[in-house]
Amino acid sequence: MQVMKSMTGFGRGEARQETTGTTWVVECSSVNRKQLEISISLPKHVADLETLVRNLAATFCSRGRVNIQIRADRATASAMPLQIDVPLATSYMNNLRLLAQQLGISADLSLAELIRLPGILVAEPNEEPVEEVWPVVEAALAAGLRQMVQMRATEGSHLRQDIETRLVEIESLLQRIQSLAPQVPEQHRQVLRLRLEKAGLPLPLDDERLVREIALFADRCDISEELSRAESHLRQFQQYLDCSEPSGRSLDFLMQEFFREFNTIGSKCSDATIAHHVVSAKSELEKIREQVQNLE
Length: 296
Description:
Elements: E1 9-17, E2 22-31, E3 36-41, H1 50-60, E4 64-74, E5 82-84, H2 86-103, H3 111-115, E6 121-123, H4 130-180, H5 183-198, H6 208-220, H7 224-242, H8 248-268, H9 272-292
Parallel strand pairs: 3-4
Antiparallel strand pairs: 1-2, 2-4, 5-6
Helix pairs in contact: 1-4, 4-7, 4-9, 5-6, 7-8, 8-9
């Protein structure tokens, strides 16, 4: 049995950069989308890694919206140089002095109090060469992506089981419709003769007009082609489920064709039992379509 993946998953990976004492942490999550969309969040000092991250992620997934968050956890604050935002500190001082004048209070402010204000003192990571950072980030990213893909595969196996159960029910409904279809013209013949008798216009069974009417009706309600195509869709659906390549788009298209056949069967046959089976089959198809939309 081939592995079928959903588009929902989460994974996390870590790798340590020994030269700087930095632990790179990567979190990957994905949800369903018609195409592959990759959203990446990187620290500013390694923004040049975005293309490499995107290319690696694309080798793991072919469909879905993939969100990748990468951060650097440093062992000590001393690993990063401190930067003072002098213009911001000056703005704070000027505005605080103005406020003190308006309120008639002292404007005394110590340096210790000033540097505690938001944004005054910030730790800026050193710029690091891409060739040194990437191998570590790549290891963490690959671990996170593998974990996410494994979760997608686990979810996909559950979706597959549910789909195959519903396909068995649809196949059973098709067989029941197929067994009932030949009886529909004869039932129409009986109904027509009964109506004529009630109207005082009885006709023998071999009357040419009656035979011609039944023949025309039988031609209008013939669903053999639709049944044949529906059975073909069933076989093709199973082939896609067994396919080693992602087949979510193909299955989504096949669902439309499936619905079309059952809609035609329902419109051609006026038999109440067949109509009931068609409604049941379309209900199962709708549930399958919801599952298919989350398959890669």
